[in-house]
Amino acid sequence: MYSDRINSLPPYLFAAIDEAKALMVAKGVDVIDLGVGDPDQPTPSHIVESLCEAVHDPKTHRYPSYTGMLAFREAAANWCKKSRELEIDPKSEILTMIGSKEGVAHIPLAFINPGDVVLVPDPAYPVYNIGTQFAGGISHIMPLLEENNFLPDLDAIPKDVLSRTKLIFLNYPNNPTSSTADTKFFEEVVDFANENDILVVHDNAYSEMVFDGYKAPSFLSVNGAMDIGIELYSLSKTYNMTGWRIAFAIGNSEIISGLGKVKSNIDSGAFDAIQIAGITALSSSQQCVSDMNRIYAERRDVLQKGLNEIGIDVKPPKATFYVWAPVPEGYDSIGFSKLLLENAGIVATPGVGFGKYGEGYIRFALTQSVQRINEAVERMSKLDI
Ligand SMILES: *Cc1c(COP(=O)(O)O)cnc(C)c1O
Predict the structure, then answer these.
(1) Which of 95, 226, 297, 337 lies 20 to 30 A from 263 at CA?
(2) Closest Cα partner for 93 from 219, 248, 282, 203?
(3) Matching CATH topology for 4-43+287-381 and 45-283?
(4) From 104, 179, 202, 236, mutation site for ligand 1 pocket: most ligand atoms within 8 A of C-beta
(5) What is the per-residue pLDDT across 239-262, written as a single tens digit (0 to 9) for each?
(6) Does 43 contact ligand 1 (Cβ within 6 A)?
(7) Is the minimum distance from the CB of 333 to ligand 1 under 6 angstroms?
(8) What is the CA(124)–ligand 1 centre distance, in A?
């Protein structure tokens, strides 16, 4: 019944985890879920109020514009200027997206012909690979190894692969490894992309989720990046707005326009009232962002200390709400996540769910209160590992 496209999808590990969790809950276990990367705190109230007001205005009820409201694109451009000194033309270099997942999934349709190669990190957000496959492209895996600070080794990609390569996906601050990239790495990427005629898509979903004074650089701030790349920013993680589905792409106008062509033939844009609330999020005080970061940093410290005490060596990540921890000796990532769930009632995501190079690691999401994370640490300390 299904297309080859659907039949060739890899099994969805996260569905199996959900099932295992539901079984434990049914047994009456008080499960602590550190699995899903979805903020637990509500959307800040000034953003919610803004939506309520906008939705009462019938002008927002009609089809939105394909490229997004100009006012939203202007607010996004101002935010880029303020937060990272980027000069972006709101008319030609920005596109509103219905979440960045939508952008990631649609980009290959605009640039990839069947047989073209896309460079995809591993471990990674699964949509880079799936979006590539849906477009008939071939994913070439770039292992993200701890010894390289979880950055891809661009020199290791074979020449015959590069000659067929059209596009590269990158994501820093990174999900799931919580690693970061510096400007020097982005400069190498620009040289690499120019030498090999490759488009760069940098997914910056965690751009604002940073700690200890760290600032995540923009890929587009590097010389020459605007000629060959785009960057995806999302309001989801930054403003606790995952359910709202609002994000934007910025960068090279031809790439932006290619993505826009796909979108105008598939969706009809983001609801205007949500874009108006997005304008409020981007244009108001960013205090809510630093408040959230303070909360995540405190949770991070509690979990890191707890893991270290039971012999799991993790350093405090500078960004993202993930802790990427090596699994103890004698376990693989699925085995250890099973142990955590069945013997401690803790959900964490096995690294292999993000690709084979995620094997040997487990991802904890800092999406529970300090009290609950303390409780998780307490339970883990009683495990015999
Ligand atoms: C959460 C996440 C996204 C999805 O963000 P939306 O804007 O909600 O679609 C994209 N990329 C990465 C790496 C993520 O972790």
Answers:
(1) 226
(2) 248
(3) no
(4) 236
(5) 999 999 999 999 999 999 999 999
(6) no
(7) no
(8) 11
Nearest Cα residue to atom 14 of ligand 1: 205
Q: Is the CB of 171 under 6 A from ligand 1?
A: yes
User: Could you count the other beta carbons within 10 Å of the beta carbon of residue 95?
Assistant: 25
Atom of ligand 1 nearest to the CA of 234: 7
Q: pLDDT value at position 41?
A: 97
Which 3-state string (H, E, C) describes the chain?
A: CCCHHHHCCCCCHHHHHHHHHHHHHHCCCCCEECCCCCCCCCCCHHHHHHHHHHHCCHHHHCCCCCCCCHHHHHHHHHHHHHHHCCCCCCCCCEEEECCHHHHHHHHHHHHCCCCCEEEEEECCCCHHHHHHHHCCCEEEEEECCHHHCCCCCHHHCCHHHHCCEEEEEECCCCCCCCCCCCHHHHHHHHHHHHHHCCEEEEECCCCCCECCCCCCCCHHHCCCHHHHEEEEEEHHHHCCCHHHCCEEEEECHHHHHHHHHHHHHHCCCCCHHHHHHHHHHHHCCCHHHHHHHHHHHHHHHHHHHHHHHCCCCCCCCCECCEEEEECCCCCCHHHHHHHHHHHHCEECEEHHHHCHHHCCEEEEECCCCHHHHHHHHHHHHCCCC
How many whole angstroms from 300 Cα to the centroid of ligand 1?
20
175 CA to centre of ligand 1 in angstroms? 9
For the chain, which residues make up each domain, given as ranges?
Answer: 4-43+287-381, 45-283
What average pLDDT does this structure show over 334-345? 96
Q: Which of 178, 234, 349, 366 maximizes ligand 1 atoms within 8 Å of its Cβ, making it the mutation to test the pocket?
A: 234
| Contact predicate 144/177, CB 8 Å | yes
User: Per residue in 195-230, pLDDT tens?
Assistant: 999 999 999 999 999 999 999 999 999 999 999 999
Region 4-43+287-381: CATH code: 3.90.1150.10
The answer to whether domain 45-283 has CATH 3.20.20.60 is no
Residue 119 and residue 167 in contact, taking contact as beta carbons nearer than 8 Å: yes
